[in-house]
Amino acid sequence: MTVRLVLIRHAQTDANARHVLDSRPPGAPLNAEGRRQARELARRLAGEPLAAVYASVATRAQQTARELAGAHGLPVVVLEGVHEVDVGDLEGRSDPAATEQLIGAYRAWHAGNVEIPVPGGESGRDVLDRFLPVVEKIRADHAGGATVALVSHSAAIRLVARTLASNVDALFADAHLVPNAGAVVLELDGAGWHCVSWDGVATRPPHSPRTDLAAAPPGGGADPGEVQRQTQQTREQQGLGVEGVPDGDLEEVEQQRQGEDRCGNEG
Fold first, then answer.
1. 83 is in which domain, residue-wise?
2. Which of 108, 135, 68 is nearest to 226 (CA)?
3. Would the pTM of this model clear 0.85, i.e. be above it?
4. What pLDDT digit, counting tens, does each position of 56-101 carry?
5. How far apart are CA 204 and CA 79, in angstroms?
6. Is 61 part of a structural domain of the chain?
């Protein structure tokens, strides 16, 4: 049977709304809009046959998960290791200089150069080394097949999905944000993980060859400059802003890139 992992970004906080980098647990709680988003998420996923609901140690993730779990009569299981990227020296900032440093790190990670750290914070390798074993434990616990939800954080979700899913490449991961209460759905079959849904954005067919220059495994030699050029082309084709900022918890700040944000008042 298939294991289906629904990776959900937490709902909105005041830090998100102000585009402030707030990466360290426990972090800010949901604001009024975030509580509304969490209730809407629970309604949207009411038809999913969830076997378990997991959340990171961050307050905002647990609050979001409680709404979803309550709708399914399930407890929230809090997991270590699936929290947001620690932004180190950039914590609490919202200025362009800080956000540009994060953009550079994320682009490099999506291109496979995961050893590069955020100044004073984590590298992509650090994030993968703590997050991927948790995904493997979830898979093993539901080896007979199940649909489970994990409420986490956008930057971590994008990196993990790009690493695991055979049909998500660097260009796609860099160009497509995960909005508050948005979901990326991965499925595991005999050939490995693939993405079946990226918050309503179509992905390539499962296990299709990666076509960008970042097809190398994590830590490989993909050229982040070329990936950046391709990503900028895609953003321009999609009508997205060229200048801007990265994922704000991390993730929220990057939504300033977009002329319109799918979450309305978030960017």
1. 3-257
2. 108
3. no
4. 999 999 999 999 999 999 999 999 999 999 999 999 998 999 989 9
5. 30
6. yes
